[in-house]
Amino acid sequence: MSEPTSEPGFEGLGLKPELLSALAALGYEEPTPIQRSTMPPLLEGRDVIGQAATGTGKTAAFALPIVQRLTPGAAGQFGCSALVLVPTRELAIQVAEAVTKYGRPLGISVVPIYGGQEIGQQFRHLKKGVDVVVATPGRALDHLRRQSLKVDKARTVVLDEADEMLDLGFADDLEAILGALPDDCQTALFSATLPPRIVAISSKYLSNPVRVEIKSKVADPGELPKIVQTAYVVPHGKKDLALSRVLEAEAPERAIIFCRTRVEVDRLAGDLAAQGYGVAALHGGIDQDQRDRIIKRFKQQAVELLVATDVAARGLHIDNLSHVVNFDLPTSPEVYVHRIGRTGRAGAAGRALSLLESKELRLLKNVERLTRTTIPLGKLPTPADLLARRLGATRAAVSTVLSAGNLDRYRAVVDELATSAELSDVAAAAIAALHQHLSPAREGDEVELAEWKAPSAAARPARSRPAGEEVPAPRPSRKSPAPRASVKPPEPRASVKPPAPRASVKPPAPRASTAVPAPRPSLKAHAPAPPRPSRAAAAHAPSHRPSRESTAPARAPAAPSRASHGSEARARNALPASAAVGRNRSFTRLFVSIGKNAGVRPNDFVGAIANEAGLHSKEIGAIEIGERHSVVEVVDHRADQVIAALKATTIRGRPVKVSIDRNKTGAQRPR
Questions:
Q1: pLDDT tens digits, residue range 627-648?
Q2: Which domain covers residue 166, as residue numbers?
Q3: pTM of this prediction?
Q4: CATH code of residue 655
């Protein structure tokens, strides 16, 4: 494939005149970096892996080549020429609308299919044959099994927001769908992050893909960042008060506030509504019709604040979102990237604010390592700051009235009051009355929030030891650990090669940078594509990561799927159990009173646990689904939290009973 063209505009990318006219009518002038770098190889029929943040134009990057390459009406009954897989209903609708706009001049037919929609209606649309199907993985697999969707003639498949689909537990569904596609089907994978599970899937189903990474660059001197990030370290138990002050100081036009759990979402939304904000709550306990109404009101700016969980906000893209607030910092830095990518879109400025206690600073460091940026710590507004801001609003209101004039009707009141008080006192009293009306006092206004300061080593008191206590020997250096007789190192394998040096990794940005800035393309060189491997063989090959759904009572270490992957796992598995425990997580098995008879699937458990208990997918282990009950593994220290959360919600519309499976607890296994 040729290098991306340097010609300006979309004209240099090789698009049909009909598509260029459609783009001009939509107001598109310049392709974004991800579009400029991925569209040429996609138009040539190459497989592509595109990594770029949310809001960088990934939809047009794959939709325009799809529309250009397919032949309208060629799919046949129940068939499709292109399949686009997305994580959520909302994103399915948005992508389908975008493809429809681009393909209208060419007569392209597009149908979104997703859960929560009447399946008979979807059946009628698919029966006619569709050029492009945009689907969530679960519903697409349902139609494949019913044979109401046939992909034997599909020319292109796209995985959009692939990392989010895996986080929602769709790994098995994706592999089943990819395995059903023709061997010569073009495959494109787009994602904000590329965790190992995505790399494993791409190695099985993509043939010599062109890899494109749009990197974040440090803002140039004098250049305003697109997303300004700030973190606030909050005293223990004072997050609510800190949030109230930050919102008053920032005055967001529209903001999404992220919490970990459904209970926290409802509580916080109620508190903010009591303070006079227009606020709505969004979480997994809200039915689809109510969810649609909430999102519509937020898009129409009928409410200014949306308090949501990560799972409930998947695929939600709002134009002109001024702020994203992390009331609870996510445990996964990739989730942070997805959250803040919802603001600062299409060249607009945005703000990303995070509230955290000092014990959560490690989570912030994880984000900084992933994004290669330094997020500055801000100072929380003080009572004096709040008073100054409120008085400024009162002063502005009085100035507006003075400028408008027409005050004669009020002079008699002033003259009457001036007979018993100084005129300046009368004016001050009038302003005080107006101030109390415009900015009523709130609970906690006078509370001083202590400013957090990083502890210094010199300030830490030395621990006193009782008389006679032995002073431990110094720990060995990490660089040269003492040999352990009980640990046998793994034998070297000739097929395992050290990773090649990465020239694209740059030193961390200086602390003055506060942005997730404008993207910059990086297109890796590629060789001519070799013959594609059989998809059927790939579908039955061992996965890089074991399937969540299991029927075996015990789990043995999984063999790696490829010689070039999994070297770290092999080395870890070669260690005796006593040496490996420190690297493993201890899991508790939970008995859940729902199974196959209710149609439950692994992603139902992953979604419920992630949404209601706030766990990351890495904290969820094996899921065994029986006929009438299931067993789910979660990390030990979150087991009680998961039990309480699942008892308070429903799975597949049913309340469930949850308890610890006393037969097998605390299972140790590599993660």
A1: 888 999 999 888 888 888 888 7
A2: 10-216
A3: 0.52
A4: 3.30.70.330
